[in-house]
Specification:
Blueprint lengths: L3 H17 L2 E8 L4 E8 L7 H16 L5 E4 L3
Parallel strand pairs: 2-3
Antiparallel strand pairs: 1-2
Length: 77
């Protein structure tokens, strides 16, 4: 099972890059199946590149640092 605290720590490493572009990311939930639910905020929320940011940035880094993470999805998806 994925530890929510571990996910928050990794998101804190990613956050400065997103904030530099006027955005942010918030952890919504960590599901038992290894799915991490996040909400992109600020400039990231409406950005046309947000899906790429989620997949190539947030998801890639979370999977590298926490192998139990299987996927990252946006809240409401």
């Amino acid at each position: 099972m994925v530890d929510k605290k571990d996910v928050e720590e990794v998101l804190n490493l990613i956050r400065p890059s997103l904030q530099a572009d006027g955005g942010d990311v918030a952890l919504v939930d960590v599901e038992a199946d290894g799915t991490v639910v996040v909400e992109l905020q600020g400039a990231c929320k409406g950005c046309p590149m947000s899906q790429m940011t989620l997949a190539n940035g947030v998801e890639r880094i979370l999977k590298e640092r926490i192998p139990e993470v299987l996927r990252v999805v946006p809240a409401g998806a």
